[in-house]
Write a structure and sequence with these properties.
Blueprint: H1 2-39, H2 46-53, H3 57-63, H4 67-79, H5 82-92, H6 97-126, H7 130-156, H8 166-177, H9 179-188, H10 193-208
Helix pairs in contact: 1-2, 2-3, 4-6, 4-7, 5-6, 5-7, 6-7, 6-10, 7-8, 8-9, 8-10
Length: about 220
C-alpha cells in the first residue's frame, strides 16, 4: 500500500520540481535582460545575474548556461514571436497593396516594440563577442527576408512602381522598416510607436506602390 501511494505522489512531485525549475529559469532570464539593458552586456557577470535573480551561480549555469547562452535564449524570443508568421501569412494573402504595406509595418512594429531592449543589447554585445555578432547578422538576414515577402507580394499584385525590382524594393523596405529605423525614431528621438508606424508605412507606400491607373 505504501509503495503504491508513493508511486502515486511521484508525478506530482515531478510537476512541482518542473514548475520550480521553470520559475527559476524565467527569473534568471528576466534578471539578465534587466542587467544587460542597465549596464551593458560586457559589464554584467554571471554573479550579478545570480544575485539579481535571487539564486546561486551554479544554478544559473545549470538552468540557462553562460552569458552567451542566456543572450541566445533572449534573442530567440524575438525571432520566434508568433506575430512574425501571422504577419507574413497576412501579407502573402493580401489583395490590396497599401493594406499589405500597412500590415507589414504593423507586424514589424509589434515585434520591435516587444523586443527593442534585446535588440539594443544584441547590438552592443556584438561589438565584444563574435558569436553575438554572427547572431545579429542572422537575425538581420531573416528580418530582411521577411520584408522581401512584402516586395514579392507587391510584384505579384502588379503594384510596384515601374522599373522597381523586388530586390531593390526589399532594400528600400529594410531602410524604412528594418531594425535601425525603429531604434532611431523610438529610442533615440522619442517618437511614439504609433507615430513611427504610421510615418514609416506612409513612406513605404509612397516609395514602392505605383499610383492607381485612371479608369
Amino acid at each position: 500500500m505504501s509503495a503504491h501511494t508513493g508511486g502515486g505522489r511521484r508525478p506530482y512531485r515531478n510537476d512541482r520540481r518542473a514548475e520550480a525549475a521553470a520559475g527559476t529559469r524565467a527569473a534568471i532570464l528576466d534578471a539578465a535582460l534587466r542587467l544587460f539593458v542597465a549596464h551593458g552586456y560586457a559589464k554584467v557577470t554571471i554573479g550579478d545575474i545570480a544575485r539579481k535573480a535571487g539564486t546561486a551561480v551554479p544554478t544559473v549555469y545549470a538552468s540557462t548556461g553562460g552569458k552567451s547562452a542566456i543572450l541566445t535564449v533572449l534573442i530567440n524570443r524575438g525571432v520566434d514571436d508568433p506575430v512574425v508568421e501571422r504577419t507574413l501569412e497576412a501579407v502573402r494573402t493580401a489583395t490590396d497593396a497599401r493594406a499589405a504595406v500597412a500590415t507589414m509595418a504593423h507586424g514589424v512594429r509589434l515585434d520591435n516594440e516587444r523586443h527593442l531592449d534585446i535588440v539594443q543589447v544584441m547590438i552592443t554585445a556584438a561589438a565584444v563577442e563574435e558569436q553575438v555578432e554572427e547572431q545579429l547578422r542572422q537575425v538581420s538576414t531573416a528580418y530582411r527576408q521577411a520584408l522581401g515577402v512584402l516586395a514579392e507580394r507587391l510584384a505579384v499584385l502588379g503594384a510596384l512602381r515601374p522599373g522597381l525590382s523586388t530586390e531593390r524594393a526589399t532594400d528600400m523596405l529594410w531602410f524604412l522598416l528594418g531594425l535601425p529605423s525603429w531604434r532611431l525614431f523610438v529610442a533615440e528621438h522619442a517618437w511614439s510607436w504609433d507615430e513611427t508606424e504610421q510615418w514609416l508605412a506612409e513612406q513605404a507606400i509612397a516609395a514602392l506602390v505605383a499610383e492607381p491607373r485612371d479608369g
